[in-house]
């Protein structure tokens, strides 16, 4: 009888690396009593003379407040990301993540000086919208995309007005808008 050898494949390098880095950021935060989470993996108003300000514009998407916060985001990223990485390529997906991180970080820094932002939910919503756009053919807008946008953006606006929680609905909306803009541009 012939032995079957099971090989593991690093099939989606951007998505897997993002996921592992997010786990490392969470573990570092736990090991340092939250110091690295605040110093590196959260974005908030800080001096432009501080080099960490610029790093935080990008790194905040790796930071998470808890294991459940991390898992909630990473599960979506692991489900949606590989298909997007296969469709658009690793480079374009990485650029989409970096652009979405920067835009959401900059908006947080500019308009919400008294609060901090961390987590990959903006990236998740960017991926949701990009995935919905991947069904576009011959210039036709899929009804599923319209439904995703109406339900998601409408839900986020309602939550933003009604709920007073620690969830940044604006980041979700920014992620969705980035996903729409980037998805349309990458298709072309």
- Radius of gyration computed on alpha carbons: 18 Å
Report the span from N to C terminus: 51 Å
Low-confidence stretches: none
Find the count of extended strands (DSSP E, 2+ residues). 0
| Annotation field: number of helices | 8
Helicity, as a percent range: 55-70%
The proportion of strand residues reads under 5%
Give me the oligomer status: single chain
Query: How would you state the average pLDDT, rounded?
Result: 88
Question: Mind summarizing the main beta sheet?
Answer: none
SSE ordering: HHHHHHHH
How would you classify the helix and strand content by structural class? mainly alpha
Global shape: globular
What is the structure about, briefly put?
With 188 residues, the chain is an all-alpha fold. Helices cover 69% and strands 0% of the residues. It has helices at 13-31, 35-39, 51-59, 67-88, 90-111, 121-133, 143-162, 169-187.
Explain what the structure shows.
- The structure is a single chain.
- The chain has 188 residues and is an all-alpha fold.
- It is 69% helix and 0% strand.
- It is built from eight helices and no strands.
- The radius of gyration is 18 Å and the shape is globular.
- The termini are far apart.
- The model has no long low-confidence stretch (mean pLDDT 88).
Labels describing this entry:
single chain, about 190 residues, mainly alpha, 8 helices
Topology:
Elements: H1 13-31, H2 35-39, H3 51-59, H4 67-88, H5 90-111, H6 121-133, H7 143-162, H8 169-187
Helix pairs in contact: 1-4, 3-5, 4-5, 4-6, 5-8, 6-7, 6-8, 7-8
